[in-house]
Amino acid sequence: MENQKNQGSAGKALVFFVIGVALMVGGMYVSKNVDIPFQHTLAEQGIPLDLGKTIATIGVFLILFKLLEFFYLKPLTEAIDSRNNALQATFDEAEELKARMTELKTAYEDKLAKSEAEAREEIQKALADAQQMKNQIIAEARTQADEIRRKADEDIEREKAKALVEMRTQVVEMTLTATEKLIGESMDQERQRQLVEKFIDTVEVGK
After folding, report:
1. How many CB atoms lie within 10 A of CB 147?
2. Could you give the CA distance from residue 131 to residue 137 in angstroms, rounded to a whole number?
3. What is the pLDDT of residues 119-168, one digit of tens each?
4. From 66, 72, 118, 170, which residue has the greatest number of CB atoms within 10 Å?
5. Cβ atoms 16, 61 nearer than 8 A
6. What residue segments make up the domains of the chain, in order of their start?
7. How are the residues of the chain apportioned to helix, strand and coil, as percentages rounded to the nearest 5?
8. Using an 8 Å Cβ cutoff, are 92 and 60 in contact?
């Protein structure tokens, strides 16, 4: 396609060049060899006109126009087109890069939002686990405290019962000793013990 376009341009340039040369040669020939009557009339009126030189000048302009177009205008046009194409390519690349950056930004924001949501979920889960652990520790502490209190109560009751037994035994012994001293003779120890214990039981029941 480009080759056909270049061939067409070269063909047109060649045609212009041939026409220009023909006009230049023909004009010079007319100027030197052909006598045109109206030129004399124009000259008498103060308008010098050489039709042959005019035609030759037109041919020279045609040739110069094509030379200028070929050596200056065409390269300049191609350079401008190349520059425009480069700028357009740069703009297209910039737009593509902008679209890519927008896409990456959107993906990053989505990923960041997802990470934040996951982090919040993990924090809430950790808080829930900590609260559950706290409740469990408190419940276990209460259970242990209740168990310690229960054992302490049992120990107190046991020590209290032991103390009562010891005190009761001492009271019985003291009573027997006092009775023997008052009576002045030894009584049946087992019988005396039963009587004293029965008396103590009666007193405790009365309380």
Report:
1. 10
2. 10
3. 888 888 888 888 888 888 888 888 888 888 888 888 888 888 777 777 77
4. 66
5. no
6. 6-123, 158-206
7. 90, 0, 10
8. no
